Amino acid sequence: MSLMRPFSTAFRAAATTPTVRSYNPMMTATTTPPSHFNLLLSTTQQRSVHSATQVKRLFKNNPARIRVLKKRGVLPRPKPTIPDRTYPPIKFKPVFLSNGWSAPPPEEVEVPEYPFKVPRTGRKPFGAVGFLPVYRDVRIHGTKHTTLIRGVTGDLPAFVSELMAVLHLSLGKKGILTSASTGKHGGGEAGRGVNRENPIRIRTGNVVEVNGDHAKEVKKWLAGLGF
After folding, report:
1. What digits encode the pLDDT tens for the residues 191-219?
2. Which residues have CB under 8 Å from 39's CB, separation 6+?
3. Which of 39, 45, 49, 107 is the most buried (most CB within 10 A)?
């Protein structure tokens, strides 16, 4: 009886069987994509406009672009303003030992009065003469070298101006950094340290910090002044 099933019953069963359709990404242009694909395209947002900060960074004040323009001579390089020396060295030639110590000038040598003073270190045994308070500071795994001059008293601007003349340093882009210096977005500019653009900083306790290793030049200069 089952083998003699009429054809109408077989066609009716095939018509009621559900068919599973899969989405083919390689569909033709005439094929209509499913509804969820249209929803994805409608919700996707593409950013085509840069912000003012991004435009300024990319096209105006890009550091690499500015360096290239300066090398080509398109942008004029500002001339460094190095002050002149005000106080010449005295008639005394200091002699330095291997540990950095040098003897002060004898009493018969006349030492003029300066608006600033750099006293030597104290608390030496048997009243011995101390060292000039000039130190090297190495940070950031040995890649950052600075020079520290401690205990400067008196007229600090006059001392910094004379120091700039001796080391041939120009005034920094942000002037002389101090411990109270703040940046555009807050925070201490001085906390980031000195660099080529801002080579001098006055730290807390009248400590003058200079970018680079200038310990020998500074000691020779201070000893030549009679300190």
Report:
1. 467 888 889 999 888 899 999 999 999 99
2. none
3. 39
Which residue in the block uniquely carries the two structure tokens 């030492």? 111
**The pair of three-digit structure tokens given for residue 23, joined into one six-digit string:** 């989405």
Q: What is the pLDDT of residues 159-173, one digit of tens each?
A: 999 999 999 998 877
Surface-to-core class of residue 219, CB atoms within 10 Å of its CB (0-12 exposed, 13-18 middle, 19+ buried) = buried
Residue 119 CA to its chain's centroid (Å): 32
Inform me whether the pLDDT recorded for 44 exceeds 60.
no
Write down the residue that tokens 């960074």 correspond to.
57
Q: Convert 40-67 to b/e letters by CB count within 10 Å (16 or more is b).
A: eeeeeeeeeeeeeeeeeeeeeeeeeeee
Comparing CA positions, the residue from 41, 217, 212, 60 lying closest to residue 139 is: 212
CA separation for the pair 157, 115 (Å, rounded)? 10
Q: How far apart are CA 133 and CA 209, in angstroms?
A: 12
Tens-place pLDDT, residues 65-95:
777 877 887 776 667 778 888 999 998 889 9
For residues 12 and 22, give the distance between their C-alpha atoms in angstroms, rounded to a whole number.
24
